[in-house]
Design brief:
- The complex is a heterodimer of chains A (about 220) and B (about 550).
- In chain A, about 35% of the residues lie in helices and about 25% in strands.
- Chain A is of the alpha/beta class and about 220 residues long.
- In chain A, the strands form two sheets. A five-stranded parallel β-sheet of chain A has the order 6-7-8-3-9, sandwiched between helices. A four-stranded antiparallel β-sheet of chain A has the order 2-1-4-5, covered by helices on one side.
- The radius of gyration of chain B is 25 Å and the shape is globular.
- By secondary structure, chain B is an all-alpha fold.
- The chains are: A alpha/beta (about 220), B mainly alpha (about 550).
Chain lengths: ~220, ~550
Amino acid sequence: MTDDNANDPRALILDDVHIRLDGRTLVHVSTTIGPGDICSIMGPSGSGKSTLLAYLSGFLDSAFQATGRVVQGGRDLTGLAPHQRRLGLLLQDPLLFPHMSVGQNLLFAVPAGAGDRRQREAIAAKALDDAGLSGFFHRDPATLSGGQKARVALMRVLVSEPGALLLDEPFSRLDADRREKIRQFVFAKARQRRLPVLLVTHDEADAASAGGEVFVIAA
Amino acid sequence: MLRIAPAIAIAILVGPILFGLAATILPAAGVFPALGGEALSLEPARRLLAQPGLWRSCAISLATGLITTAISLTLVMTFVAGWSNTRLFGSLQHLVSPLLSVPHAAAAFGLAFLIAPSGWIMRLVSPELTGFASPPDWLILHDPLGLAMIAGLVVKEVPFLFLVTLSAMPQTLPRRYSQAAMSLGYGKTAAFIFVVWPRIYRQIRLAVFAVIAYASSVVDVALILGPTNPAPLAVRVLGWMHDPDLSMRFDASAGALLQLALTLLAFAIWLVLERLFGAIRDGLAMSGLRFRADRALRAAAAALIAVCATAVFLGLTILALWSVAGLWPFADALPSQLTMRTWQRQIGNLAGPFWTTVSVGLAATAISLVVALACLEREARTGRAGGSWAIMLLYLPLIVPQVSFVFGLQLLLLSVGVGASWLAVVFAHVIFVLPYLFLSIADPWRAWDHRFGQVAGAAGSGPDRIFWRIRLPMLLRSALVAAAVGFAVSVGQYLPTVLIGAGRWPTVTTEAVALAAGGDRRVIGVFAFIQMVLPFVGFALAAAIPAIIFANRRDLRAAA
């Protein structure tokens, strides 16, 4: 990471973030992730790395005690409600809303300020084109393959115009040959949009492929 | 609205019971200024105790409550123990909801039409097997021991207890534990009863107490099938409440409290029975016996469950047949001709009660659904779930006998000038609709994958948008099924409707029960048929609406 990148206001800053459970430290991290950079947090399951993402996105269970600031785009996000933080979240499962079509899943995420109905539909359709899924607008998400679902899930996050991307083992449910393709797809899209990315994973291949800073937490 | 939702729910569940009981205690203690009761006195109690046959009425109610519950629970336990993880079990699971949706009164009429001396079973075997050319003079319905009433209650409580058992089972990992016991050489039934049932029972205990309370204080089923001379206590209390001699209100209030005491006594006896059964079970479990020869027991359990389901479905069929029967002389198995004449004659009498039933049912269901969803949404947003006391509160209206507080509630509503309005009837129904609706929707609502909400939230949606656009549509089917449960409960309400409505808001249920004494099977058939069809339509809509809306969404169809 270059210093320029770190000083860019779009960077995602974790300032002395410290999460505890019953007085025991789960995660303690300070870092600045520049736009287009990917920071990996490695640790076995149960080590609290998902807890970190829950804290950053505003869903932390009240059983945990957390301190430290989260800053992005020049805004202190720490006390904000989840929907005000603009931190896109990609989880293990694609979690496409089953009652909506593929296109409606994307439209749901496009911000209201992005334009009128037609402009918003154009954004959704373009996102599908970008993901190699042209013509999938009216499809039932249940009929998609695992890789297609993963790509729709990513595009859904991207059209919501997030300031940064939080990834929670988004590749672990994919079969081995598809995993590398989706991984490259996600990283390429994030770099292309110059989004700071925080990736938590237990898979060393993920971190190696990301190529950025790596933090390791013990169990 | 969201913040006060739990308070509203608690007010609905607890308020009427507290005020209703208070307004029952005062007249029971002689205080009822409108009727000249100014000071505390033991006179109402003395008059109550002087009622002829009072203790026999009490004994019938107590025995009905305990025997109904013991039979139903034993049947469900033995069947679940002997047949879980079998194909028969899976297919019977689908019959539970339709069975449960049949109102008690309709099921009781159906049973009466089957087992009466002039009923369908006797017609089927006469005169060939019995030699009877006319119905025998046997006291099958309204028998003095209340056996017909107990049968009518058992066929309805078995599906209820079966359903609560089914929903409690997954958390007890029944398969793993009973397989562990079977690998030690235990028979299937014994393995389940020894190692799984105790944990299931702990979870369904409140429902069991609700069955005791219901069966020990039931009015509508008792009027259709129960003993008459003397009748069970709750029936007599209702009679005193409706007595033209207004001073009988004192006796009625004292009787309502006696009913409460009686149900509490039934609970106390049940607690002893629980201990006893537990001790016997543990003794057998430690005896080293393996109880491998359980084939006959399993067969008997399956047969009895089948008899219960058949009795309800066949009874309803016969009931429907009577509504379109022309001439149907005794000993003919089928009517000699079918006619719509009864329907044509009754359509005028049916219309008013029909619309009251539907409008009260829809209103009570809508109110309960909004309150239940508001409570659950509040719980989701604050992360604070009601503890075990919240479940206790939900069961409260099901555990306090209706007759012991609804009468007081009526007096109270009259005294504040709300009177016997349509809204008052709706309000009275909500007290009983809300618990069932809440219990029906809470599990699927809480089981929803919260990560859908997190993903939507991270994409910029606030809590309201997530509720309306994601959570509610995804759970639409569960919400509609819960609404159908609530509607069915409202349709089946007898006592709150006649008491709070003061007879001015007849429903198909109150009309059908009122017809019981007359014994015109064709007219009863019409009213009871509508009573049974209304809940069924509710469940059919709850299945059809999501199927149409989400015809193109495989993951929501598979959730069925």
